[in-house]
Every structure is written in C-alpha cells, then in structure tokens.
Design a protein that fits this description.
With 237 residues, the protein is of the alpha/beta class. Helix content is 26%, strand content 29%.
C-alpha cells in the first residue's frame, strides 16, 4: 500500500531549532521524526512511500538515503522551488499513486493510532476520504454530524466558522489528527496551487462523503513547539 509523508514544512514555531535543521530531522530519543514516521507507516503495511521536501531539502534527502539503505522504499517529491501546502503538495505527487486508497500522514506526528483500523474503516464506509480525529484541546476543529461525516470547520480563537452546505442542527467539534486515507478519485477534484487538504475537504463535503474516524486511545503529539519535542521524548522513552 502507498503513503505520502508531508515533510516539507518550515517548523517556524520551533524557533532556533529549525534555523539549522528541518523539523522532520528533530531527534526523538535517537531517531528523527521522519524515521519514526516512515517506520510507523511501513509497519502497518504502507511500505511504498513518497516524501515531499522543501526546507533544508538536501538534509532531508540525506536522511531518506539512510532510510533506503535500511530497506525502506521511498520516492521523493521535490518542492524546493515552492512550498505547496498539503493539498498542492499531494496533487504535485499524484502520479505516484495507483487505483487503491492511500495514506496521507503528517511526518511531525507522533502517535500509536492503529493505521490498519483506519484503513479498514475507510474501506467499510466507502467515502472519498476518511480523516483520523481525536478529542483533544486545540484552537481549530472539524465540525461533524452524528454519522461522523465532515460538515464544517471552526477556529475558536478567531470565531471563524465554515459550514459545508446547510447548517445542521447538531454538529460536534473534533480535532483533526493529520492522518487521512484517501481515494485516488480525489485528484479529479484537485488542481495545482498552494492550498490545504482541509480547505479542499470543506469544498467537497457538501457533495461527497468525507468521514471521520475517532480514536481517543493511546497517544498523539504534533511536534510543533520545543515543549512538544520534550513530550514526544517522554512518551517514547
């Protein structure tokens, strides 16, 4: 099965740390974030992986070279000239994928989410995409209905709220985990450019079934701040 790891981000919230290395090469108890993500995906059957590169691309490619020597099957999607965000980055790599559903995974995520269960749930629901979600504190939330279908998005800090289609009576707020299973059909609704997958999903949610898969068990850390690095090291120690 195929997967794309999003590894091109600037990691600006990490301050001085990412002035000399890309975020995905931050060390977590002797392993880079990128290595941990590759091992996580491959161990769940997603052994054919493409990784996008931008910030300190040469350093990331050097790490990919080490991973290849360890037996991992990795392709590179080069975004050196322009950082494309998650949506534009995925579309740029579209030729890598075949006719089967694939995994899209943020490489700065530390989690023990059962990726096989997420994949099987997606196959069962037969939607365009399935997004892993979790009940956790944050500023931005997906809005879902009682079936777990995506219906909107909100930012609690700014008050911004987007609803796909008509406002439903009961929408729940749930946090996105940065992990998706997606049908290749989605490329027919995409174009080149700089945009996020969340923005694309919100455009499609009124006419397509985009499910959420909730799992509050285990651990989940998005390594965005120095404090998150220490939390990830503590969890995996």
């Amino acid at each position: 099965m195929k997967a794309m790891l999003m590894a091109a981000g600037l990691g600006t919230r990490l301050g001085k740390i990412t002035e000399s290395i890309p975020k995905v090469l931050v060390d977590i108890n002797g392993k880079s974030l990128l290595r941990l993500a590759v091992e996580r995906c491959a161990s769940s059957g997603f052994g054919d992986i493409i990784i996008n590169v931008h910030h300190f691309a040469d350093m990331v490619e050097e790490e990919i070279g080490k991973l290849r020597k360890n037996g991992f099957n990795i392709t590179i999607s080069d975004e050196r000239d322009l950082l494309l965000e998650t949506g534009g980055g995925l579309f740029n790599a579209r030729k890598f994928f075949d006719r089967d559903p694939f995994l899209l995974y943020n490489a700065d995520t530390i989690t023990d989410l059962d990726l096989s269960s997420l994949y099987n749930y997606h196959l069962e629901k037969k939607g365009l995409a399935t997004l892993a979600v979790r009940n956790r504190q944050g500023k931005r939330y997906l809005l879902v209905n009682n079936e777990g279908l995506l219906r909107g998005w909100c930012n609690k800090e700014t008050g911004e709220r987007i609803v796909a289609g008509e406002e439903e009576e009961s929408l729940s707020e749930i946090a996105f985990s940065g992990i998706h299973i997606i049908e290749p059909e989605i490329f027919g609704y995409m174009a080149s450019g700089i945009y996020t997958m969340t923005a694309l999903y919100l455009q499609l949610a009124s006419s397509h079934r985009i499910f959420t898969f909730r799992d509050d068990s285990g651990y989940w850390v998005n390594v965005g701040t120095p404090e998150d690095i220490e939390e990830a090291r503590r969890i995996l120690r």
